[in-house]
Amino acid sequence: MKLYLDNISGYRNLLSSIIFLAVHDACEEPVNRKKPSKQFPSDDASSAIEFIFGDNRPYFETYMLCLDIDVTAFRSKLMSVMYSDDLGVNLYMVLPHNAKKSFRFNHSYWLQATSCYAGFMAGQGEK
Description:
With about 130 residues, the protein is mainly α. The chain has one domain (about 10-125). It is built from five helices and two strands; from the N terminus they run αββαααα. It has helices at about 10-25, 45-55, 60-65, 70-80, 100-125; strands spanning about 30, 40. It has a two-stranded antiparallel sheet. The longest helix has 28 residues, at about 100-125. It is globular. The chain starts with 7 loop residues before the first helix and ends with a helix.
């Protein structure tokens, strides 16, 4: 079987696009469900946050490895940019208007949900 590396840049572009789309989706504005006063991350935002930060999702780390990007450094830089008030990089050219605010909400909601789930699962083991 002959390995074709001619299109390796095409694969790298595809993986880069997937990562970009995940970051973009993680910045989607929260939506109102059930109760008008209660906001939740959109399905796409929840999936994107889980894809980027979830422990049980090996795809993100594999894609970053293929792109020769350090996963920990990428996540750290993403967090520092999204939680910074400095515009530094002009995110608004590529991300929605309230991208940082939405990312912060979606990420915080995910953190709360995963810690509640972990606490629930730990409680199940005690019985």
